[in-house]
# Entry
Amino acid sequence: MKDKLKDKAKHIVEELKREYPDALCSLESENPVELLIATRLSAQCTDARVNIVTRELFARYKTIEDYAVADIAELEAIVRPCGFYKVKAQNIRDMCRMLLSDFGGEVPDNMDDLLKLPGVGRKTANLILGDVYKRPAIVADTHAIRISNLLGLCNSKDPVKVEMQLKSSVEPSEQSDLCHRFVLHGRAVCVARRPKCGVCVLAPYCDYVNQA
Ligand code: SF4
# Structure
């Protein structure tokens, strides 16, 4: 069973690699701190909207120190379009303060320390580990959860379970890119509530379409 799943995952990885050669994160950033902040803002918000907001935010604040001493009302006003702006602004300032006080101004390179940062959960931590530090990492976001369940790679909606199940079937070196490709595929083809199975390269490996 485990080997079958690994084999299936391998085919899915290969198909998606062909379909989306560039597995880029859709959040725009120029350094690890900016990626951390953009990811925090992306909770309950689209990446497109986050990218509009971060253009202004990153132009206004250049360093971790800038965020650490930011006027909270000003920070709130800029991030307001992303929703939950009060807690997001507070988290951004507090995480930058902690980066300075506890981590020498560097974004940590391990899960335990990343999870200590205010507002950082496993999804954000895995994005940093995969994109910044090129470690095996599964970002169990809405696309990864939905598509991997449709495909039959996972059988849970719980993000931690999905992360663990994908980790056990997907090659470590492919994990981070696969999640970016799930996002691209989820926007282009496997769209929520109206998946375009007739044109999907994953159809031969997909439980949803083959059990229908
Ligand atoms: S075959 Fe349909 S349900 Fe399966 S991954 Fe493709 S679009 Fe999604």
